[in-house]
UniProtKB/TrEMBL annotation:
Residues 28-48 have a biased composition (Low complexity). GO terms for biological process: peptide transport. Belongs to the bacterial solute-binding protein 5 family. This is ABC-type dipeptide/oligopeptide/nickel transport system, substrate binding protein. PANTHER family: OLIGOPEPTIDE-BINDING PROTEIN APPA, PERIPLASMIC BINDING COMPONENT OF ABC TRANSPORTER. It comes from Haloferax sulfurifontis ATCC BAA-897. InterPro entries: Peptide/Ni-bd, SBP_5, SBP_5_dom. Keywords: Signal, Transport. One of its GO terms (cellular component) is ATP-binding cassette (ABC) transporter complex. Coiled coil: none annotated. GO terms for molecular function: peptide transmembrane transporter activity. It holds the Pfam family SBP_bac_5. Residues 105-472 form the Solute-binding protein family domain. Residues 28-59 are annotated as: Disordered.
Length: 562
């Protein structure tokens, strides 16, 4: 097994990050911090907006990231999963970033901020040395346009702000100052802005088509201020980008000149690519044995980090037969959690509800599930569907194609349900197809393998984004489950400025959610990736995709270690 390289003090920081960041978001008064070393960004188009740069470091220093799932979009206003986040993190700049040491929100494009009206209005002061890759300065107009664009498109993480901020209440006070006047105090506001990426408003508006806010244009062009500029994107296969020479954070001699990501879904091919020194980094979604094997290579290291992540099967509560709570409970009690955590994932712990157990705001009264076939049969006897009817309807379990861990989880679920006489169809899909199907309850599978990593340092991302009706239609919310009481409790949590009171609301919501059994909550896995030994500067950053900021890393030695 890989050797853990993050000591207990890092874990304690991880546990406390959510609480501290939420506290910052609820405080009134000026908040200033030094700019973090971790960021990203980009801009410019691959055609008309080509950069004059491309020599961030010494010539020919290429960073190759191996992704196990395809990129569904390059528009930062739509990004919601880890490959989309990887693109956004390296082609655009976020307003606020996450500090790699404290895992708290810290300055980035916004160098300071203040609140007014008892936390209802947030005022951000921007850096004055940031340019887009066409050389034009990034100003408050670009920030205002970018957030307005997200609110109008109503995609990606727009649900962070849709119910609380009207575009008419976004104001530019001067070239470097922008204000967001929420319709009420909004507790997790600061934490949400780590997922707000800024686009070049002039370029995007010039390329709008039929009121699409430049969405079609940004599928094949980048328009940001970040470290890399898009050169090419072959949907489903690869992305390539070149360093923006005048990136505001500067470059070192050993920085990466180019960044590319190749989609490889076969674990054997990924391992071979890393062993032969042809890749710099993998994702964290392979099987345990794959990381153990890579850790044995002389040219690859595998860090192991506790992380803010949930692995679960959301159960589609709007589709027969999983619309029956007793069927859902039978499925949950039939699953072998110990084998999933110890044999397939190889570490971490059994999940207790939707919020990771390491995250501030987790409800510690919730008990992790255990396999109990007798209970499963009892709930099945209470269900409105007989076993014969369930098999006639058919149960579909979607897994991400080509990933051994995903396949094994499907087989483990299948084995448990077979003990009840229930047949299960395991359907491997490419990630882009999976996310397409998640846009409606009718097309969403009965259950799906989902790794849900923190999207911001707050339990809001594991509650509101999963179980509030305004968030439905994303891969994150595939259970399609909520109640009036759950929705109201989550809304109250967002409206609560006091940290402790807000966390208590999130805990209350978790208890209500688990009562409905909308998911099989399986594990809080450890974080593992493969890294070439000659890559330096990598740091775990807590929020999904932020640790894949290529600008923060450098190459030691001559090329990749082989």
């Amino acid at each position: 097994m890989p050797t853990g390289n993050i000591e207990r003090r890092k874990l304690l920081k991880l546990i406390g990050a959510g609480a501290t960041s939420v506290a910052l978001a609820g405080c009134q008064g000026t908040q200033q911090t030094e700019t973090s070393d971790g960021s990203s960004g980009s801009d410019s188009t691959a055609t008309e907006q080509t950069s004059d740069g491309g020599s961030g470091g010494s010539g020919g220093n290429d960073f190759h990231f191996i992704a196990g799932q395809v990129f569904g979009t390059l528009d930062p206003a739509e990004q919601v999963d880890y490959t989309q986040g990887l693109a956004a993190q390296n082609l655009y700049d976020e307003l606020i970033t996450v500090d790699a040491e404290t895992l708290q929100p810290t300055a980035h494009i916004a160098e300071s901020w203040d609140t007014e009206d008892e936390g209802q209005t947030w005022v951000f002061t921007l850096r004055d040395d940031v340019t887009f890759s066409d050389g034009t300065p990034l100003t408050a107009d670009d920030v205002a346009y970018s957030l307005t664009r997200m609110l109008e498109l109503q995609r990606g993480y727009s649900s962070f702000w849709l119910d609380y901020l009207d575009p008419s209440n976004i104001s530019v006070r001067d070239e470097q100052t922008v204000a967001f006047e929420f319709n009420q105090a909004y507790g997790p506001a600061l934490a949400t802005f780590v997922q707000f990426y800024i686009v070049n408003s002039a370029v995007v508006q010039e390329n709008e088509q039929d009121g699409d806010y430049g969405n079609a244009y940004l599928q094949s062009n980048s328009a940001g201020s970040g470290a890399y500029v898009l050169d090419d994107w072959e949907q489903g296969n690869s992305i390539e980008a070149t360093a923006y020479e005048d990136y505001w954070k500067g470059w070192s001699e050993d920085s990466f000149d180019t960044f590319r990501s190749t989609v490889i879904t076969e674990e054997s091919t990924i391992k071979t690519t890393m062993q032969q020194g042809e890749g710099d980094m993998t994702d964290q979604y392979m099987g345990t044995q794959a990381y153990a094997e890579m850790d044995s290579y002389s040219n690859v290291r595998v860090p192991e980090v506790p992380q803010l992540q949930l692995f679960h099967f959301p159960l589609n509560c709007r589709k027969a037969p999983t619309d029956d709570i007793n069927v859902r409970k039978a499925i949950a009690y039939a699953f072998d959690y110990d084998s999933a955590v110890n044999d397939i994932i190889g570490g971490g712990g059994v999940a207790a509800g939707p919020v990771p157990r390491q995250m501030a705001g987790h409800n510690g009264d919730l008990v992790p599930m255990e396999q109990d076939l007798d209970k499963a049969k009892e709930f099945l006897d209470r269900a409105d569907y007989s076993v014969e009817e369930i098999n006639e309807i058919g149960l579909e379990h979607v897994v991400v194609a080509g990933t051994e861990l995903q396949r094994q989880m499907g087989l483990l679920n299948q084995a448990g349900l077979n003990e009840l006489g229930i047949d299960l169809e395991i359907n491997p899909l490419q990630w882009a197809r999976l996310t397409d199907r998640a846009t409606s309850a009718e097309s969403t599978a009965h259950m799906t393998n989902i790794f849900h990593t923190a999207k911001m340092p707050s339990p809001d991302s594991h509650t509101y984004l999963m179980y509030h009706p305004s968030s439905f239609g994303s891969y994150i919310s595939q259970s399609w489950y909520s109640t009036d009481e759950i929705a109201a409790t989550l809304e109250e949590a967002r409206q609560t400025s006091d940290l402790q009171s807000r966390l208590e609301k999130y805990e209350e919501a978790q208890a209500l959610i688990v009562e409905g059994m909308p998911s099989v909550y399986i594990a809080n896995p450890p974080y593992r990736i493969g890294i070439n030994e000659n890559v330096e500067g990598w740091q775990y950053r807590g929020v999904m995709s932020f640790d894949w900021d290529v600008h923060s890393m450098t190459r030691s030695g001559e090329g990749r270690a082989e």
